Amino acid sequence: MENVQNLSAALPSHHVEALVKSWFAEDSPDFDIGGFIVGDKQETAHLFIKSPGMLAGVPFFNAVFKELDCSVKWLYKEGSHITPKPKEKIAFVQGPSCNILLGERIALNCLARASGIATLTNKYSNLVETVGKNEKMIMLCIK
Question: CB 3.0-4.6 Å disulfide test: which of 4, 63, 101, 112 passes with 20?
C-alpha cells in the first residue's frame, strides 16, 4: 500500500456529525418500508470499487454508519489511489440490515462525489507537476 497522508483530523468530527444528521433529515422517510421489510438481522455489506481513482469521503461514510450503529472496516486508506481488480472489495459495513439499507444511498453518494473530485484533482495535479518538470507553462480553464 502507498504512503497516504491522513487528513481526517482536518475535519472536526462535530461538523461531520452535524452534516450527516442534516442529510438524514433531508433523505430519510418518516416510515421506512424497506427497513420494515428487511428487518434488523445483523448483516455484512460489501463495498466494491468499479473504476480506478482516489478514495475520498471516508470520514463521511464512516459517520453515516456510526449514526446508524453500524461499523465500517476499510481495506484501503483515505487518499489511496486504487486500480481495482474485478469485483475488488474496499470496505465492509456490519450492522442491522435495515440500518445498512437506510444509510446506503447517503454514504455511497458522498463517497462517489468526494472520490470523483479527488480523482480529477489528482489528475490535474499530476499534469501540472509533469508540465512543471518540463519547464513549460500551462493554462487550465474549466467552464
Answer: 63
Query: According to the model, what pLDDT value does residue 135 have?
Result: 54
Q: Are strands 89-96 and 71-74 parallel, antiparallel or unpaired?
A: antiparallel
Can you give the pTM of this predicted structure? 0.81
* CATH number of the domain within which 86 lies: 3.90.1170.20
Q: Give domain status of residue 98, yes or no.
A: yes
Side-chain half-sphere exposure of 126, counting CA atoms within 13 A: 8
Domain span including residue 31? 8-115
Task: State the DSSP string of 31-59.
Answer: S-HHHHHH-S-EEEEEEE--S-EE---HH
Number of domains in the chain: 1
